[in-house]
Amino acid sequence: xxxxxxxxxxxxxxxxxxxxxxxxxxxxxxxxxxxxxxxxxxxxxxxxxxxxxxxxxxxxxxxxxxxxxxxxxxxxxxxxxxxxxxxxxxxxxxxxxxxxxxxxxxxxxxxxxxxxxxxxxxxxxxxxxxxxxxxxxxxxxxxxxxxxxxxxxxxxxxxxxxxxxxxxxxxxxxxxxxxxxxxxxxxxxxxxxxxxxxxxxxxxxxxxxxxxxxxxxxxxxxxxxxxxxxxxxxxxxxxxxxxxxxxxxxxxxxxxxxxxxxxxxxxxxxxxxxxxxxxxxxxxxxxxxxxxxxxxxxxxxxxxxxxxxxxxxxxxxxxxxxxxxxxxxxxxxxxxxxxxxxxxxxxxxxxxxxxxxxxxxxxxxxxxxxxxxxxxxxxxxxxxxxxxxxxxxxxxxxxxxxxxxxxxxxxxxxxxxxxxxxxxxxxxxxxxxxxxxxxxxxxxxxxxxxxxxxxxxxxxxxxxxxxxxxxxxxxxxxxxxxxxxxxxxxxxxxxxxxxxxxxxxxxxxxxxxxxxxxxxxxxxxxxxxxxxxxxxxxxxxxxxxxxx
Length: 548
Description:
Layout: E1 10-12, H1 23-33, E2 38-42, E3 45-48, H2 49-65, E4 73-77, H3 82-94, E5 97-100, H4 107-117, E6 121-124, E7 127-128, E8 131-132, H5 133-140, E9 149-152, E10 161-163, H6 164-169, H7 180-188, E11 196-201, E12 211-215, H8 216-230, E13 237-240, H9 247-260, E14 263-266, H10 272-282, E15 286-289, H11 292-298, E16 315-316, H12 323-333, E17 338-343, E18 347-351, H13 358-363, E19 367-368, E20 373-377, E21 390-395, E22 402-403, H14 407-413, E23 420-428, E24 434-439, E25 444-446, E26 449-451, H15 453-460, E27 466-476, E28 480-489, H16 497-504, E29 516-519, H17 533-547
Parallel strand pairs: 2-14, 4-5, 4-6, 6-9, 9-10, 13-14, 13-15, 15-16, 16-17, 28-29
Antiparallel strand pairs: 1-20, 2-3, 7-8, 11-12, 12-22, 17-18, 18-19, 20-21, 21-23, 23-24, 25-26, 27-28
Helix pairs in contact: 1-2, 1-3, 1-9, 2-3, 8-9
C-alpha cells in the first residue's frame, strides 16, 4: 500500500490472518469456551455448543466405524438444517473432504459430482420439495462403485440406507472408549490445516460445474477476515438466508460462528415472511444473503409491524448492491449494510468497513481483507491506472488451491504468482476501493459503446414501480447488440416503456437508455440465488427472431 492517493489499480491491505488451525480445532475451542451458549437454531430446535459437540462427536465415531477416514470424499446434501452442520463438522474433525451438494440439483448434476469425486459416502435428506433423493441414489448407485454408504435422516426408504439418527444415538463410547478420537484416531490420521477441507462445485451460469478445492487454512482464514470486517462476537446471531451448500453462507456465517461462538439461525429456504419473523423471534443481529432479499423486505407491506431493532448490520454478496437499496437499508431497517464481493474460489475477498461512509458502501465493494491484495488489469494482465476498467484479481490467504481434476483450468485462472483472475469487470478508486462494473462477458457492446448492466440497474432500482430488474443484451444486426431491461414490477403496478425512457432522460447518455423492456413474473436463477442472465439472453434472442 502506498502513501496518499493511489495512481495504479493495486492495493494491499496490511495485517495477517493466522494460519495453522483446522476447523475441527476451532470447533473444539469454541465448545470449551461457550458450552451453554446457543450455537444453532432451526425452527423450534435450539442447540448449545455443548449439545452440538456431543452429537458431532458421536457422528465422528460412527463414521470411523464405517471406515471413513482422512482424505475420503463424502457428499453432504441438505437444505439449511442442523444435520448439514453436524455432518460438516464431523467430516472436518476426521479430515474427510466435504462435498456439499445443493438441494436444487437433480440426476445429471448429482450423478456427475458423485462420479467425478468418487465419493465414499453421501449424507443426505431422503426427500425435499417433493423430490426423492433416496430413490435417485438407489437408481444410480449401481453406476457409482465407490459409493459404499448412503446415510439418510428421518426414515429409511431402501435396505442399503443407514439412518442418521441411529448413528448419533448409539453409545459409541462402549466400542471406542477413553477418548479414542484424540488418543488413537488422530495419532494414526493426523490432520493439518493445509489438508483439503472441501470441494465445492460452483453453480455456474454455463457449462459443467467446477470443483473448487479449499483447505482448512483457506476457509478458516477467510472466515477470520469476515469476523474482522463485521466485528463479529459471540453475542451476534446470524440469519442464514442463503444455502449452506454455497460459499456465502458456508464460510461467512457457518464457519465464522464455529470460530467466534456466534449463533447461526437457519432459514431452510428463502421466504421473506419467515425471514422477518426469525429476525424478531431470535433477536438476529446480522442477516446474510443476496441483495434481492433486503429488497423484498423493504417492499413488504407489513414491514413496520416487525421489531427489527436487534439488527446492527447486514452482509450482502453474490450480486451488485443497488445504490438506492443500500440507502434504504439504513433508513428503513435501521442497520448498516456490508457490501461484499468474492466468488467460490475466494469467499469474501473484499468488504466495506463499518467506518466507511455511505457513499463507499453504495458505490464500491470496499477494500481487501487483511493480508489480501487486489488489482485491476488489462487484457495483457498489466495493472491499469486508477479509474480505468479491467479485470479484478486477488491474491492471498483466501484463494482456492485449484480446481478438482482440472489442471488446465487451474493454470488458466490462477497464475504462477498466486493471482486469481475473476472474470469480473471492475475499476479502483484512488483510496483502493473496488468498484464492480459487471461480468466481462456481460458487458453489452452497443454500436461500439461498452455498456455496464450494473450502471443501468442502479438507475432502474430508483424507479418506484420496480421490484426487481436485470439488464441484458440481445442481438441486433445494425448495432451488434441492444439493451433490454427485464423487469418484475411491484404488486399491482404496470410499467410502460415510454415512462421508463422519460425517467432515464438527463440521467445518462441517450445511447445507454434501454432499447426495450420485458415485463416478467420471475427470473431464472442459479441454485445460489443469482439471476441467470445467460438464460435471459437466450430467451430474448429467441423472442426477437419472429420480430425480425
